[in-house]
Structures are given as structure tokens and as C-alpha cells.
Amino acid sequence: MGKLDRKLALITGGNSGIGLATANEFVNEGAYVFITGRRDAELATAVKKINRSVTGVQGKVSSLGDLDRLVAQIKREKGKLDIVFANAGVARYAPLGTITEEFYNSIFDINVKGLLFTVQKALPLLPDGASIILNSSIQE
């Protein structure tokens, strides 16, 4: 038996980096995971790499419609979540004097808005005792 036997997890940004490594570990510990990613090809590669107990759902955490679709799919397929690992994030850099509102919004829409609304929209699927992990480590 693994530490996460029969647990259901959502990992945003699960198609690469820390998210993919976490998804692999969760599955190895007995969990079923839903992973998200923006790009279909990378998401499909991640699902193939994990190879079991995983569903990939393409979407952007910055899109409330995509988050609604994600949560609806999890509810329809599994009914609940035990773990939310809000991990999706981006790192973009620009010299201070060149930062535009559009540049700023593109980062905050994913790193802040996406994290907040991922958790908010998943709340109805989380029973007492569920875990929410907020990951603010961003890599590029």
C-alpha cells in the first residue's frame, strides 16, 4: 500500500517540471491524478510517461472557462478530490523600464489568478480532510 492509496489528486502544470515529477510520485504512492497543461502535445507526452492512473486535461489556469470544464470533468468522472496541487506557473523577464501592462497581466493571470481560481473552483469537490498545496516555485 502506498501513502496515497485511493486518493484523487489534481495537479495543474502537471505536464512538465515539478508538476510532472509530483504526478509521477503521487501515482507511485497509489493516487489517481488529473494533470493539466496548456499544450496538447506536452500533455499527451506526460500522460504517456506516467502511463497509469492519470487523466490529462488540456486547458489554461488563467481561463475560468477552462477551470470550470476541468472541475466538471473531475466531478463527472470521480466525484471528488482529495488533493489539489496548484502548481502551474510561468517565469518571464523584462527590463524594468520595458514592462507593459500586457506583460504584467500575462504573468499574474497564470501565477496569481490561476492559482486562486483553481483552488476556489475545486473547493466543492474537497471533503473535510482534503489537502491543498500551493506551489510558488516558478521555473522557465
Helix-strand layout with pairing:
Layout: E1 8-11, H1 17-28, E2 32-37, H2 40-50, E3 54-58, H3 64-77, E4 83-86, H4 101-122, E5 131-134
Helix pairs in contact: 3-4
Q: From the alpha-carbon coordinates, what is the Rg to the nearest angstrom?
A: 15 Å
How many E strands? 5
Approximate shape: globular
N-C termini distance: 35 Å
Helix amount, in percent?
A: 40-55%
Given as residue ranges, the uncertain stretches (5+ residues, pLDDT < 50) are none
Total number of helical segments? Answer: 4
> Which series of helices and strands comes N to C?
EHEHEHEHE
Strand order of the largest sheet: 3-2-1-4-5
Structural class: alpha/beta
Strand content: 15-25%
- Mean pLDDT across the residues is 95
Main beta-sheet annotation: 5 strands, parallel
Give a written overview of the molecule.
With 140 residues, the chain is an alpha/beta fold. Helices cover 42% and strands 16% of the residues. It is built from four helices and five strands. Strands 3-2-1-4-5 form a five-stranded parallel sheet, sandwiched between helices. Helix 4 (101-122) links the parallel strand 4 and strand 5 (131-134). Helix 3 (64-77) packs parallel to helix 4 (101-122). The longest helix has 22 residues, at 101-122. The protein is globular. The mean pLDDT is 95.
Give a quick rundown of the structure.
With 140 residues, the protein is α/β, with parallel strands linked by helices. 42% of the residues lie in helices and 16% in strands. The radius of gyration is 15 Å and the shape is globular.
Keywords for this entry:
single chain, 140 residues, alpha/beta, five-stranded parallel β-sheet, 4 helices
